[in-house]
Amino acid sequence: MTARTTQTTDQLLREVRACTICAAHLTHGPRPVLQLHPDARILIAGQTPGRAVHSSGVPFDDPSGDRLRDWLGLDKAAFYDPRQVAILPMGFCYPGTGKSGDLPPRLECAPAWRAQLLAQLKQVALTLVIGQYALAYHLPDAGASVTDAVQNWRMHWPAVLPLPHPSPRNNIWLKRNPWFGADVLPALRQRVAEVMATGGGDLTRTAEPVAARRTVT
Length: 217
Known about the structure:
It contains ten helices and six strands; from the N terminus they run αβαααβββαβααβααα. The chain is α/β, with parallel strands linked by helices. It has a single domain, classed as Uracil-DNA Glycosylase, subunit E (3-Layer(aba) Sandwich). The strands form two sheets. Strands 2-1-5-6 form a four-stranded parallel sheet, with helices on both faces. The protein has a two-stranded antiparallel ribbon with strand order 3-4. Strand 3 and strand 4 form a beta hairpin. The longest helix is centred in the last third of the chain and has 21 residues, at 178-198. It is globular, with a radius of gyration of 16 Å.
């Protein structure tokens, strides 16, 4: 990695973290939350920060993050090492809440920044695609629903894996789908361990080519 690459990435991250394009629509104001380094081997493509993450500025700094780290078999030190794990939600700012929970990602965010940020990640060996909005962008061919996509998890394995959101609100889904814990999670933990230990493995397929031609509407 050259000094020029590092400078370009750092400048891009500064621009993203200073972004205010959605400010008029954000009740709690803009606070982009993401984690990225060109050396990252794992990409977590999520939804949006929640209220707790908006307050702390730390991605997955909430019960959802505790569950996700358990799913991955990673402690906080590894999870928050940007040289190992990149975290790019579909919307970088907390969108606020509606009648049924948190609002969806703002539509301005992904077209403005996502392709540029994904282009920085040349070493990713495993992309985790979490929830319906990330699936629509990264894996539009994975299935009609999150459940369909996760059931078809071998379609893009071992480079890309669709996941349900680890939120406690999904406890009922997890109880209704015990195959997820029995089949998917052991394979996920093994793959994460391989990627962390070997420096990535097979890089022949990532989610970036799909994302590069996908526009969120």
